[in-house]
Design brief:
mainly alpha, 3 helices, flat
Length: 92
Amino acid sequence: MSEFYRFPAMAGLNEWDNAQQVEKIEEEAEEAEEAKEAYYGSDNEIPYGVELMDVIHAAETALRMNFNDSEVSHLHELVIEKNRKRGYYDER
């Protein structure tokens, strides 16, 4: 099992296509935005956090649908390097 993923693989993974999974990611991102707006300034940020985790879960599912563990590891490294070059990380 890959060390990258935080969630179990979805059942029926082969029943979804890429377009449907991208729609799912977008849906989860919209739900996160709605949760943040609903709880902005509130002491209860849990719904927002749960929706953010759903975005990660949906993205992990898309990765599983298209790439093997070795490819995911390589993609992870590429994203880190891209963002490092852009100065996004606090690496003092």
